[in-house]
Amino acid sequence: MPRVLPDAVLRITSPQGPQPIVIKIPSRHKHLIPLYVFIPPTTASSTADDLELSVLVDFHGGGFVLGHCHEQAPFCAKLCRELNCVAISVDYRLGPYAQFPAALEDAEDVINAILKPELAAYKELRSGINDFLLRHRRPNVRLNPNRIALSGFSSGGNLALNLVMNIGPPELPELWPSPFPADYPSEIPVLMYYATIDMRELPSVSDIIAGFHDVPRSFIVRLELEKHLLPAYLSNDKNTNPRASPGLADVKNDGLHSRARCLLVLAEMDTLSLQNEIWLQKVWDAGREKDVSIEKFLGVTHGWTQFPDSWLDADALSQKHEAQNKAVDFARGYWKV
User: Fold this and answer.
1) 71-121 pLDDT, tens per residue?
2) Cys-Cys link to 98, which of 76, 102, 115, 148 (CB 3.0-4.6 A)?
3) Contact, 262 vs 231, CB < 8 A?
4) Which part of the chain is the Alpha/beta hydrolase fold-3 domain (predicted)?
5) Mapping DSSP to helix (H, G, I), strand (E, B) and coil, where does residue 87 land?
6) Element at 334 (helix H, strand E)
7) CA-based nearest residue to 92, from 74, 113, 117, 116
8) Residue 164 DSSP SS3
9) How many CB atoms lie within 10 A of CB 52?
10) Cα–Cα distance measured from residue 297 to residue 331, given in angstroms and rounded to the nearest whole number
């Protein structure tokens, strides 16, 4: 449904803004990756000629076959406003048109478009942002390559974690490194909301909604669609690949990037909470307990933070806002803003 709606609907679903601009950057495979880019309102009042801003790169959920950046607008706009950063929601390729590892390749290409000035994607992203700012008489903006945060919801959390993993032999035939270099100079906040990091188990498992009586029927249908459509993106014989299921990968010896700092936001009535907690224990056992935090919310289920406010009762809505504030505070702690 979000893909049927025009971008103008965001003025209703995300009224506080800022409203995003859409910039399409070239990928390694020459297709264009649409990015929904949120520019902080402070640029309108700045007297500087040139600004350097931190950047959040965000990935929607949808089981790699559904979902859209429209769903992420309230979250991205909030972090953009409160952290004074540029927020980028990535419209990565989905099945059945594309197959694994298409979404991950798009995610890597977006990070490289921030880190590598020699790439055409870097130039397209920067010119797209500054063309918009010039038209609105605002100062130029540069994305700070040393202050990047990641966020991801459900399958988007899979992508966010993947981007800070280095995986190679014996798990893969050859090294598949993180796009963040080993000598990356600063911490990388990674905000993972009910992440699908073990693709052997999906959020459509029936007990996800046990005791949660107010979940709209449309959400249950969406989970069932994800389950049946996912094989068009990721065949069952590939779901144990550590790049498909990064929760299965080794986190030792900088398997998890030494600069990664992760926040896991989990829902009590979500079967995926268990796989996240298993991964958390792996990280702790590897001696990285200080680098991963967990926040678990009671009485809510998978995807609740992305539900429209009108779908939620007062308690779930309050916890949605709290979960968003946890993300702001977590990133702010590392960015010192």
Assistant:
1) 999 999 999 999 999 999 999 999 999 999 999 999 999 999 999 999 999
2) 102
3) no
4) 56-305
5) strand
6) helix 314-335
7) 113
8) coil
9) 13
10) 19
Cβ neighbour number for residue 70 with a 10 Å cutoff: 23
Q: Please check whether residue 206 is in contact with residue 220, taking contact to mean a CB–CB distance below 8 angstroms.
A: no
Query: How far is Cα 258 from Cα 290, in angstroms, rounded to an integer?
Result: 12
Distance of alpha carbon 47 from alpha carbon 33, whole angstroms: 32
Asked whether the beta carbons of 58 and 75 are under 8 A apart, the reply is yes
Look up residue 231 and give its amino acid. P
Distances (CA, A) of 122 to 27, 32, 82, 111, 125: 11, 13, 25, 9, 5
* Distance between CA atoms of residues 29 and 328, nearest Å: 34
* Tokens read off for 171: 């798990």
Domain boundaries 7-335, corresponding CATH code: 3.40.50.1820
Contact (Cβ atoms closer than 8 angstroms) between residue 160 and residue 170: no
CA distance 203 to 209: 10
Show contacts of 227-231: CB within 8 Å, 24+ apart: 227/63, 227/202, 229/63, 229/65, 229/66, 229/95, 229/96, 230/63, 230/64, 230/65, 230/95, 230/199, 230/202
What confidence tens digit (pLDDT) does each residue in 24-59 have?
Answer: 999 999 999 999 999 999 888 887 878 899 999 999
DSSP for 292-322 reads: EEEEEEEEEETTGGGS-GGGS-HHHHHHHHH
Phi-psi region at 46: left, alpha or beta (left = phi > 0; alpha = psi -120 to 50): beta
